[in-house]
Queue: 3 jobs
Job 1
Amino acid sequence: MKNEPKAVGRFVKDDVWSASVSRGSHEIYKQDMQRTKSWQPDSFRINAERIRAGELVADHWLFGRQAAGMIVMGYISESELEPHRQALLAEHAKHRDYWVETKESDDKDAKTIRFNPYEDIKAELYAKHEAAMANARKRNA
């Protein structure tokens, strides 16, 4: 029975698991740990860079509070957002390009109105963005 494994516990004096999990316990990692404690990701800056790079972003980064935040913080300008907005609106138009017919009133002789809801969607998105910009400017004033 010469090849029996020996118990590791009698050779280990400290709590090895805790030492291996806690990188800060090693002297060489101390500086690295201090630097990373204060770092926080800035989603506004990240998404502004993604927009500049032509990458896809969620629509709330193009219209509304998040878009207003990026602009007010100076990460991006309205003109940089506009091509992405137009692409989003073109996608809406492609999928929602249908006409809706409705009557002016419940009267059966009432005139039929025909309209495309895309224009309402577009107007609503820009109105939402303008309201968010006004609020963001108030907060940062």
Job 2
Amino acid sequence: MVKNAGVFERRIVFFFVFVLFFPGCGGVFSPLAAQTIYPVEQFGPDDTLCIGRIALEGNVHTRDDVILRELEFGPGACVTVRELERARLRIYNLRLFNDVEFAVVKRGSELILRIRVWERLHFYPFPLLFMNERSWKKWSYGAGLIHNNLWGKHIIANGMGWVGYNPGFSFRYENRWFGGALRGYTVLEWRNQTIRNREPRWQDQTEHHQLVTWQIGRRHGIYWYTDVTVLYDQVRLNRTALRWNPQRQRDHVGALLFQVKWDTRDRWDYPASGVQWQAQMGAYALLNGTRTFRNWRLDMRSYAPVFGTILASRILAVLNRGSVPVYQRVYLGYEERLRGHFYEIFSGENLALLSMEMRLPLRRGLPVSFAVPETLKPYFRRMTLDVYAGIFLEAGSVWDGRRGPGPLSSWPRGAGIGLHFVLPYSNVLRLEWAVNENGRSEWIVDMGRPF
């Protein structure tokens, strides 16, 4: 129910400065006996390798099954090098390791797949510095404590507090795999936060939210996810006209959400191939009143390599039906923005957004290095910078009730070009120029992928 619940991580700008400079720790490997070792990169993408067994190295704190469950194959399987690369990237996407390397070790007639990892620091305090709602004028700062690999099972627990814009504190527990073959996952979050109202005419008003969410779901194979979320939000607004129940000092809101997700992206920080499709439906109710509304959300993103470039596209639709409270309205101009109208705010009960972008790699794998003692070098492995050029076209619309978004020709639109700097540890800095349908241009400096 809180607008930034569930997308908080996307808005962290300089993701935990402590992690950036002390990102991980190397392991002590138990190398295989002297054999002939072939890096996987030396094979062609369609070459097939028959794997006799799998050997793991470097996972000092991480259990073997956390790594092995990201593979679509086991000992005795014949797989292509392309499939091996997809598996390597899935392990890297766990964000437990600074680097993941696959190599083939030949012992007689047997081929052994060696998976070597360099673990990140898994338990640490961190400073917080992030901007809210993708605005450089809305900064928050604070501190927190995180453990991202409890018992070596990739269980994440963190607590954090922050002041500045929209101050608050939260606790989050995430278990990404429980029940063995059941493939269950669960997320529990509690948040206490004061939020500036987003409606343009009420931005001098604040909302105080006490939010509890519990999500439980199942991973079907490698790419399919289904889950259900139970939500409770206690909302206090000083202005009577903004309350869902004007007769009470607080709104007590409950919700039940169902979600299906299909995710085949190769890399989560800056995908070059794959899709991410999410469909969600939910029912919200005022627990100390009689008002209700229903919510549907569809977010379809695709990434395809085309003649050496990345063709990225997105379709986003959010529909609400019923009595929608002011703090559940949707906007272009906060987390979701329309380039060409980047600094404008569009408010409504429903939203549609279409985006397409061609991303051309200019430089990849530029090394980023620091002069550090030999003992600290494992902490700085895989520090690289990628640079892409982007050409984009977007259109969006928001509207109230059932009147619909209108013809596409009437939607606010924008097009432009820019540079994307893919920084170490999954940060992206964008410098862009856009022009809208009225010929007005603007410069954009933003953090994170547009989609």
Job 3
Amino acid sequence: MLNLNLDSFMVEFKDGSVKNVGPTDKSATAKLFDATDVEGRAFGDRRVKIVATDAEGNEVQMALDPEQAAAVADDIDALREESAVFE
């Protein structure tokens, strides 16, 4: 399930194109629940890409700096040791 929350989002569809209208203070949050496939891979020479897909074909991608990817890996290792999530 993909949950997409858009704030102050306004676009215009005209003649097959999308045009930004309104203020430039738009923001969005995307959440993917019940991922069925998750992978990490190199993205260019300096990033790590994490891709998660659900059974409906929804996909979320994140490109992280190596330090950010390592921090996520450390967080998961800590959960393995300290949390009941992995039991």
